[in-house]
Amino acid sequence: MGYLPSMLIRFYFIKLFLYMKIGIITILKVNNYGAELQAYATQAVLNRMGYDAEIIDYLFYKNPKHKTTRLSKPIFRHGIKKQLSEYLYPMIEKIKAGKYREDNLKRIARFEKFHREHTRMSQTYRTMDELYTNVPDYDIYMVGSDQVWNPGIYSSIEPYFLTFAPKGKKRIAYASSFGISTLTDSYIPFYRKALKEMDAIGVREEQAVDLVKEVSGKNATLVLDPTLLLTATEWKQVAHPAVTLNEKYLLIYELTPCPYIKTLATYFGKMLNYRIIRICKQAVVEDKETEILNVTDAGPAEFLHFFSEASLILTNSFHGTAFSINFGKDFYTITPARKTNNCRQQSLLRLMGLENRLLQENAPLPNLTKVAMDYTLVRSILEKERVKSTLFINKAIHGE
Length: 400
Known about the structure:
Layout: H1 3-18, E1 21-25, H2 33-48, E2 52-58, H3 79-98, H4 101-118, E3 121-125, H5 128-133, E4 140-143, E5 170-176, H6 188-196, E6 200-203, H7 206-216, E7 221-222, H8 232-236, E8 249-253, H9 259-272, E9 275-279, E10 292-295, H10 300-309, E11 312-315, H11 318-326, E12 330-335, H12 343-351, E13 358-360, H13 376-398
């Protein structure tokens, strides 16, 4: 092959990959660790693969600067109780956080610092109308992971189905989650139409694969949450210590308060001689036991550091489970005893062959001899799933 043809081929592939612009819309800027880190991971992975990825800065409805101009039509069927909870719960959280104003401000500052240093974003869209009348230009439009398709979102979820993307531009879903395992009849017409217009669908849970097929007739692929596509080493590169600890500790990360987790922590802490640390959601301390170190000012980087250095982790969070696995930690995921819809955690644990790390509230205390985990098989499964998920992305972008 001559010099000129080889140079042209080389230029073609450079243009094909490096100059392919991808716009990602996902849940961001709500000061939530899982949301923040999955958004970062999606962009980081695409950039690592050679694409030019940018996050579309569409403010989620829980962001105080968001302005709701359209509501999801089915939301009215939730009734007044659901609508009130959407307004009252954040207000209650803010009142609680007000007691820890200094820590809360530090926490917010750390989230903003993470934004500035680690994410590249478009101009800000405060409303759905702003987004739809001034659509950012990309070669590919992608909706990211997390519960972007949860029908409980109060503001319209249309943008998270990429309905603003220009006709002819490819629309891809990566690790999108419904947050539920079934849809009521009132939601199905909208979801059917929106899903059929997607060019490729990758979802985060097994139940979502079935749900997409049931609602739209389209095939969806089970892929990893983007936080699992980055290695523990890569995550440690953006982690930052909040405090210096010279002792082994047990880490608690709860999305909702769980007395059983406290019981487990006290038991393990005493029997294994671990310090107990809790990362508090929204800078709110649920209780003030002297034996627990409550961390109220951690940002995403500090969150990562606490996970990377923990000796044992107790969590009822999906991303708490994901980071426990990624860092190769001994852990238990706790789910409510009477709730059967724990599909997010169950799906991930089943995929990794770790169903025995799932505990229902008020289950008998685990045997201490079963706390330590062997990650040999898990690492093999994780690497295999990373390859599969990366292949899905490339095929979705370049496939017809």
